[in-house]
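Q: Convert this sequence to structure tokens.
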Amino acid sequence: MIATPSKYHYEYIPVARENIERLARLHSFKVTWTSDPAVFDRDLTPYAAIMFLNTPAEQLSDSQRRRFEGYVEAGGNAMIVHRAAIVPAGAWPWFERLVGRSFVNHPKVQTAVVTTADPDHPATFGLPARWLWSDEFYVTTNPHKVAISTVLRVDERSYDPTRIWPGQVGERMGADHPEAWHHRVGRGRVFVTLLGHTADMYRDDRYLQHLLGGIYWTATGLGQQR
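A:
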């Protein structure tokens, strides 16, 4: 697996790297850790999955984008974490479709109830049906009409989606407010989690279990119970 962290949330990088590499040692997989977009100029086929870890995908050049698109369409796999799900509208429509949802905005960080939508997916193994989590709960839309399979949702009744900065308008999505999901693009698997805003989250056992399940499924396609 290759992980491409961003400088956007720079303070999380050493914490995330330490704990993801610890997961790799525990669970016998290899991580290539890089923040250099030039990796996308090389052959990507040796990697079982590519994780965009808070990475602004629009930083890739046109040729790097085409190489990544070809990798996924031919059966390579992608995992998108938190900030990496945000791409400016129209900047890279293919990547918007890869994510499966388009970012609108988010309220201020709050504690809310996250619910397990799919207990049979590896990214929810070990998670309770309802659990408290504090994050930026992204509001998204579906302009490209992408079908997704939801893994986690946030219960909007448990926080205030309108608690936002002056000049912005807080949005509500209602009962169906996905926070993690999966789908396919071409022959490739895609897993997305919108959780993961702060460095301390990468020390949290629940979050790390969620990430591990996402990595495992993305790289192998295995582990679902149905």
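The chain has four helices and eleven strands.
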